[in-house]
Amino acid sequence: MTDDIILEISKQLGENRVSSDKKDLLSYTYDFWPISLHWILEKKFQTTPLAVVWPENTDEVEKLLKICYKNKTPIYPYGGGSGVLGGVTPEKRGVVVDLKKMRNINVFKDDMLVEADAGVNGYYIEDFLNNVGFTLGNIPQSLYPSTVGGWICTKATGQFSTRYGGIEQMISGVEVVVPPGRTINLKPHPRTATGPDLRFLFVGSEGILGVITRAWLKIWPYPEKKVKLAFVSDTLKDALFSVKKILQMGARPAVVRIYDKVETKRHFYMFDDVFGKIATVMIVEGVEKIVDADVDVIKDCFIGKSVSEDLVDHWLKTRFNVKEAAEFVPLGVVFDTIEVAVVWSKAEDFYVNVINSMKKVKGVLFASAHASHFYPQGICFYFTFAGLPPRNITHYDFYNKVWAATMDATIANGGTISHHHGVGRQRINWMESELDGGFDLLKKVKRIIDEDDIMNPGNMGV
Ligand SMILES: Cc1cc2nc3c(=O)[nH]c(=O)nc-3n(C[C@H](O)[C@H](O)[C@H](O)COP(=O)(O)OP(=O)(O)OC[C@H]3O[C@@H](n4cnc5c(N)ncnc54)[C@H](O)[C@@H]3O)c2cc1C
Description:
Elements: H1 2-13, E1 18-19, H2 22-27, H3 34-41, E2 51-53, H4 58-70, E3 75-78, E4 95-98, E5 105-108, E6 113-117, H5 122-131, E7 134-135, H6 148-154, H7 161-164, H8 167-170, E8 171-178, E9 182-186, E10 211-218, E11 220-221, E12 225-233, H9 236-248, E13 255-259, H10 261-268, E14 278-286, H11 288-301, E15 305-307, H12 310-318, H13 323-328, E16 334-343, H14 344-359, E17 364-374, E18 378-387, H15 395-412, H16 431-435, H17 438-449
Parallel strand pairs: 2-4, 3-4
Antiparallel strand pairs: 1-2, 5-6, 6-10, 7-11, 8-9, 8-10, 12-14, 12-15, 13-14, 13-17, 16-18, 17-18
The protein binds flavin-adenine dinucleotide.
């Protein structure tokens, strides 16, 4: 059967589009989920796929789904593999579909839209748009290793989200191939009122409903002016209150990042002004007149001292740097980040209670947070922890204990369990509490679209 399916794929798509070479299979068993990285370090692979396939267009994705559907073979869509929750893990033997050979881009300047294939690389699309005078404004820290399809399927959010929004606000149309191999083309319109919005059924679907092959995304003129601002405040409360007021008045800085005292020290230790304080960095960008008005509002509202924009330059220089994780792991330290969100009225208590809950887990060395995505309604906290498992506990169990402490405290304090990384295979246990009866409904929707459960089986717990 394994050989038959590979033969059929190579017959229909071409021999060079499919591989069952061991090196290729191993390369596609993991993403940036610390658990799967740990499996690799320990040389304990759960499963490997039976083949990796590289389609070049939507027709080929259709053909592939038809073959897999006929053979009841699981399919695991794969973008850049930068997901952090095990979303691409081929837990049952199946075919990994790497979309990276699908990378066409077309810009429609008049309509302020870009049409991009699912496999288009994050850095490439932004650079392409900048060169023709536009920006998409989606700059996740994983800009270099992620893809447009991955962004849509995980509901990604970038560093400039406070102005441009998350990927869901950028979507105008999507094309998706669903089992048993049928393409649905939900074309771009400025707005449409044709029933429940099916485009958004696939946003955040993490490969469980179909393969996204193309999208139409909203773009903006490349900013005419950029202003960098930095502040230090005595308390987190002051910084939170300031940003809430700024956004609720209608100003829209693109980047806003508030660091708690631990993270201020960790990220900005070289600046005297910030020691023992709360640092906030901002970038305001767009048309000059609007930027100037927003900057006035921000300066009027911020409770704290305005400090050198060198802080913003330092952040800009280091913003794609993830060396901490790489430095900690070889020392046996368990390290991860967890992003959640909550409304303003609960934000302060939420921060304190979640941090306390993480710190209560025996072995945790530190727990800290920054906030980097803001709305008039609330805030995303990005918690970081590091710890050494006590002697009788495995790294794996320790990791899961801290996760459980964070997720449980998030739910108990009125937050949502994920702001932008998604669910994958790590957040499944909390989906029932998060979605209430909605989780059952999601499972039913999955069965209707994918009755044989060939699309990324096991992912998201459906
Ligand atoms: C260092 C680092 C920093 C990060 N920073 C951010 C950040 O700032 N903001 C943020 O939002 N995320 C961030 N992430 C998480 C990750 O980069 C995002 O989730 C990203 O959107 C994943 O894109 P990808 O192309 O790598 O998807 P993958 O990891 O390949 O896949 C993710 C999920 O989507 C599914 N999928 C992928 N492509 C398709 C497709 N075409 N059709 C159907 N299903 C598909 C997969 O099956 C999987 O379930 C970061 C990750 C790392 C490692």
